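The instructor's notes for this session suggest beginning with a concrete chain rather than abstract definitions. Hand out the sequence below and ask the class to guess, before any prediction is shown, which regions might be ordered.
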Amino acid sequence: MPHRHRRTWSWIAVAGLVAVLSPALPASATSTPAPPVSCTEEERAADLARERDRVLPALERVRTVRNWAQLGLLAASGWGALGHGFVSFDGAGVAIARTDSPLSGSHVVIPLPVGEKPLLPLNMPDLVFYAPNPESGTVTHPHSPDFPYTLVGWGYWDGYNLERHPTGRGPVCLTRRDWHVHERGIHDFATFGFVPVPPRESFQGESSGADPVPPLALLRDPGIVHKRAWNTHLWLTPDASTVTPAFANPYQRIRGQDLRYGQWFFQPPSR
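After discussion, reveal the predicted structure:
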């Protein structure tokens, strides 16, 4: 037991150093503009099933993460940025972003052997969601992992634009209602949570939120800054035969911190 604690705190120390030295990644758009696709219900169902078939094989070895070694295997697969540490969010779980995503500004990067870099195709998800051990009592603690973790879904990001939802990230049949807006703000170092810093606008969602966060806000809440972004979340069905778009997992209760829909995230204005 003492040996495990030493290993845990050594990992946290390394991760903390990476967090301090790593610059914020730019929140630039990642999709290729294309006209929205109008799909029938049958076409949409087939599209979502193809998404499952395309992504799940890349995560087959880490559908369950039981220990630190398997967490490292996930990082080696391409998803290694813990934007909120090990904090689990209500209805979503722990979010682990692509290490190379232009929108994945994060506090903690799971360390890999020197010289090793994961090679992840650009069309793969920007983040994956894992449900923590449901019997754990520390699911909202950023420094305490809650093994075993179970893969429950994944998601995509893109730069926010009021006039147009993304058409080059994720399934092609996604509509505007399948996307949500993640507010501009700060992933603060104090709590590993989120401090929204909305831009000045006449209604929520009017601005792209691409302007820099005011320096005083960052002085008050030091952390990693990101601009407004589109988010979509795709959840594995109980039989893992397909995925379903929804903000929160519709199939299982996942304990964690409130995601504060309406403040941290909000529904985009209609167009």
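Then share the key points. The first strand starts at residue 64 and ends at 65. Residues 42-266 form one domain.
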